Each structure stands twice: as structure tokens, then as C-alpha cells.
Amino acid sequence: DGGITQSPKYLFRKEGQNVTLSCEQNLNHDAMYWYRQDPGQGLRLIYYSQIVNDFQKGDIAEGYSVSREKKESFPLTVTSAQKNPTAFYLCASNDRYIDEQFFGPGTRLTVL
Amino acid sequence: AQKITQTQPGMFVQEKEAVTLDCTYDTSDQSYGLFWYKQPSSGEMIFLIYQGSYDEQNATEGRYSLNFQKARKSANLVISASQLGDSAMYFCAMREVNTGGFKTIFGAGTRLFVKA
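C-alpha cells for the assembled complex are given below, as produced in the milestone run.
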């Protein structure tokens, strides 16, 4: 089945540690996105990539980093510079000719 | 800057009745797309409906319809015959184009509670 996978579903880390969230898609989509969602809030764009080896900062990129070495993969690293990293992280992708964004199941990150 | 406003933090509706969730947007672009997504407590984002700015007819998908009023910059979601499973967060979103390509901005959401 085609779709987006994010792993793990729940992630716990100690304060000051970097952590990498995985996002993989087998939809052959060019564009991929990372969003952050805080409780009771909407989605805020962290980074997005329209093509392999290229990515753009979203609205809240500080403290995060990404890479796009393969079309199907767009990992997000939450660095120790991110002041409040505890949140729900959603990865999405879309085909350039179709407007609908497809979302992964999300990763809930808790920093202790 | 583009912006999406959802003014109803929470809404209650009786089962089997219709409900309208409000969404207004602000953009200077002529070409844009408007979306509604449903987010149940599990956290997944479920695509519901899409309206293009040049579409003359309101979009419909089963029990969902989008009341698109371009001059007023509103894109309200209408859910007919509400079901208990409709209880969830609902997000209005807009696709915008910038130098980095396409990106989607989301409203703050409306939490819908369906009463039996």
C-alpha cells in the first residue's frame, strides 16, 4: 500500500540531546513537508522540500534541521537549540500536480 | 501575508443535524486552493474536501460541502447529517505559492462535538 510512514510513534529524549524523526513515503511525491503541532493548536510549517537535495525553511525552522538525499525520505532532526521541542510532529507529501497533501501518522516527541 | 482564520474554537451539534464550521482567509494571490482536514484524537490528518479559487461551483464530497464565497474570502465547511464519528478537530487550510514552491498554511482549528 502506498503511503507515508513515520517512526517511531512515541519518542522520549532527555533535554539537550539531538533526536531524528523519520519520514518515508512510497507515493513518488516530489514535495515533502514537516509540521509541528502543539496541544489544541493548528499545524505550523518547519521545513519543506520540493525536490531532492533542496529544502526551504518554513515559519518555525529555528532549532531544526532536515536533509533530502532521496526522494522518498525527509528526516527531521530536533537539535538541542530548539527551546521547547515537546510536540506532535507530522510529515506530509504531495504530488506537484495534485493539491491534496497526504499525511503520515505523526510522532509524539516528549523531552524530559 | 496569507492567513487563515477559524473563529470557533469549539462547536456542539446534535447527531443527525447539519453544522457549519467557519473559515475566512486572506490572500492577494489570484490562484489558490482551499482545503479542509479532519483530525481525530488519534492525530492523523484526514483530507475532506478541496476548492480551487477558479472553481465556480461549491465542492461537495459525500456529507461534506464547502460553501465558497470568494468576494467575502470565506470557505465554510458544511457537514450534513452529523454522526458521532464526526467528533474531531477540523482544520481549514490554504495552498500558497512562494519562491520556495508550494506550501500550505493552516488555521487554528475548530473542535466539533457531536451529541447523541
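The interface with chain B takes residues 31, 33, 35, 40-45, 48, 50, 56, 58, 88, 90, 92, 94, 96, 99-103, 105-106, 108 of chain A (CB under 8 Å). Chain A has a mean pLDDT of 92. Further analysis is deferred to the final report.
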